[in-house]
Amino acid sequence: MPDAMKTARTTDPSYELMDDHNGNSLIYREHGFPCPLVRWHNHKEYELHLIVASAGKVFIGDYVGNFAPDSLFLTGPHLPHNWISQVEDGEVIAKRDMLVNFTDELLQAGNQVFSELRLLAPMLERSRYGIEFRDPALIRRAGTLMQQIADSRGISRLGYFFILMELLAGCDDYQLLSGTTATQLGDDQHVDRTNLAVNYIFDNYMRELPLEEVASHLGMKPTYFSRFFKRATGRCYVEFVNSLRISKSCELLTDSDKPVTDVCFESGFNNLSNFNRRFQQLKGMTPSRYRRLAMQRLTEQNLAV
Fold first, then answer.
1. Three-state secondary structure string covering 14-57
2. Eight-state DSSP code of residue 130
3. How many CA within 13 A on the CB side of residue 304?
4. Nearest Cα to 214, choosing from 234, 188, 196?
5. Euclidean distance between CA atoms 24 and 34, whole angstroms
6. Contacts of 105 (CB under 8 A, 6+ apart)
7. Is 0.85 surpassed by the pTM of this model?
8. How far is CA 86 from CA 58, 66, 67, 70, 89, in A?
9. Angstrom distances, CA of residue 107 to CA of 24, 39, 132
10. How far apart are CA 3 and CA 93, in angstroms?
11. Which of 71-75, 158-162, 271-275, 300-304 has the lowest mean pLDDT?
């Protein structure tokens, strides 16, 4: 990563207590970057999260991927998540995210009165693994509805919310993200050290980065750090670093015409055969095929606009 690129994060406790419901069924938020809310955290509320500006890395459960403007995610209760933007040194983004948070209690209570709400149950169950919605037309419509939620109050706001939920529940162009749910991941006791570890890895993964170095950075013995990291993130250290590097390579394959060899080394791998093997394992195809499919999908999206 160029020296000019910078990430801003905090190491606050990961559990976020949302005490700003103010008697409302929903919480609507929007924020920029850098922002104290940008950290590895979880909360009891579902979170519908629309990226408005900037690109970077998304971490949901044990999933590592890319985000860009018009990326739309839904995370279930207590599933850890974070979006880290890659921005120029000193760059400030006034509005990066639009978020709607809501609770199981809201929907369970509603189910007792409105049987139609039960149609949301399959999507909400899937959200415990994290969902990324992929349909550009749906995302545009969702963005409009989220703005209507932001601009309205009372029953109107609730109405827009349920229209949005029905729209998302009917979408079949989505990707499940995490291989584990919140209940399978570790507790929050050492979350500040988890943040330190993830941040250090994020800043240095594009070079040789042995586990021992990260453990030393956190003041831990390597064997303890290995167990700690697996419990906190759902992945062993090597898997996590490789996922981050493959995510970077996907970004380069999609957004540039650099040769695969250059993509390999710029992503942090020092061996082309190892890169190809890891890419095949995680993506189920070669880097070249991934690039062709990404270009095909981009062309189809442009034609649909």
1. CECCCCCCCCCCCEEEEEEECCCCCCCEECCCEEEEEECCCCEE
2. -
3. 11
4. 196
5. 27
6. none
7. no
8. 11, 11, 10, 16, 9
9. 13, 27, 21
10. 19
11. 300-304
